[in-house]
Amino acid sequence: MNAINVGSVTGSAQEAAEAVAAEIEAQVPITGAVVTDTVTLPAGEAALIRYDWSVVNVKGDPINVSVTQYAIIGQTSGYVLSMSAATEMAVNYEEIFRQIAESFVEEPA
């Protein structure tokens, strides 16, 4: 799991979801559609973003990876939590990824 502070953020979680989805579609070699939703977490309003992409493992073999991201609009900053799993295992991690997102706490600056 990665947590990145994206600094000053304005707008709604839906606007964040649309902006992140557009960036993903423009920059990531995805293998399907980017799926977005909005959710409310203890840390604040968040965009839920899911997509699949193909990467090459250390052996040089292509593998499909499912990515789940939560773009959280906090009190003072925005954060993107990124989690991934092999596509065939992703359903096994959905609940764990949700619990991780729900446990995220924004620390005061």
Describe this structure in words.
The chain has 109 residues and is an alpha+beta fold. 27% of the residues lie in helices and 43% in strands. The protein has a five-stranded antiparallel sheet, with helices on both faces. The protein is globular, with a radius of gyration of 14 Å. The N terminus is likely disordered.
Rg on CA atoms, Å:
14 Å
Distance between the terminal alpha carbons, to the nearest Å?
A: 22 Å
Strand content: 35-45%
- Low-pLDDT residue intervals, each spanning 5 or more residues: 1-8
H/E element order: EHEEEEH
Neighbour order of strands in the largest sheet: 1-5-4-3-2
Overall shape: it is globular
Largest sheet: 5 strands, antiparallel
Mean pLDDT: 84
**Count of alpha/pi helices:** 2
Count of DSSP strands: 5
SSE order and pairing:
Elements: E1 2-7, H1 13-27, E2 35-41, E3 44-56, E4 62-73, E5 78-86, H2 90-103
Antiparallel strand pairs: 1-5, 2-3, 3-4, 4-5
